[in-house]
Amino acid sequence: MSAGKVLVVDDDPQIRRVMKATLVGHSYEVLEARTGEDALEMFAREAPSLVLLDMNMPGMGGLETCRALRAASDVPVIVLTVRNSEKDKVAALDAGADDYVTKPFGIEELLARIRAALRRSPTGPEGGPRSFETAGLEVDFELRRVRAQGRDVRLTPKEFELLRCLVTHAGRPVTHRELLQAVWGPDYGDEPEYLRVFINQLRKKIEANPAKPTIILTEPWVGYRLAAG
Fold it and tell me: Are 213 and 203 spatial neighbours (Cβ–Cβ below 8 Å)?
């Protein structure tokens, strides 16, 4: 039984061969693409469960490819790159990536990241509130519908789960580590840049003035708090 269909996007044939051998050995079905253009075509045709995307490619770059994938689907995207600065990580996450793995990386780490990304399917409402309403925000967790500032908004799965976690603890601070482990998994906790990017994205979608948020509040040096009532 297949563990999932993974699209590997990298212009280096040796890396693709190694990745394919490793993933097939762990029961994944593997698709390969050399360029961003090839990746988008194959993505539309094959509907993979997850995308492993290199940042440095000829033609359409990794960031542009990531944005195009995210505009079309909520399928998990993990960026693989030699770039390891916080600026590069933020750029990839801002483009829609769910996770970021720096080369060279350990295969076990990558497999763990893949498993975590594939497990991020929407959770049932029994694990938290069924609905939530405060000034300017209405959330129906059963129907996965969000209405903010009088309009319907579309959240990515990661944004939705982050909002769910904040709502579950509405009125009290939730630490960076708590949020990371609740949304990304127990292996996370030291990636604050992930939260900065996704909190900013959420604020842009649900706040009347994202620069002066009144719904998702920052708790300096601690984490974030969702205003209740």
Answer: yes
Q: Among residues 96, 81, 152, 118, which one has the least CA distance to residue 3? A: 118
Q: How far is the CA of 62 from the CAs of 53, 84, 105, 172, 182, in angstroms?
A: 7, 15, 18, 38, 28
Decide if 76 contacts 51 (C-beta within 8 A): yes
What pairing do the DSSP bridges indicate for beta strands 131-134 and 4-9? unpaired
Looking at residue 209, what DSSP letter applies?
Answer: S
In CATH terms, 4-118 corresponds, of 3.20.20.100, 1.20.1440.60, 3.40.50.2300, 3.10.20.30, to 3.40.50.2300
Q: Which segments of the chain does DSSP mark as H helices, in order?
A: 13-25, 36-46, 62-72, 86-94, 107-118, 157-168, 176-183, 192-206
Q: How many residues does the chain have?
A: 229
Phi, psi of 122 (to 5 degrees): -55, 135
- Contact between residue 57 and residue 12 where contact means Cβ atoms under 8 Å apart: no
pLDDT tens per residue, range 140-194: 988 889 999 999 998 888 889 899 999 999 999 999 999 999 888 888 888 888 8
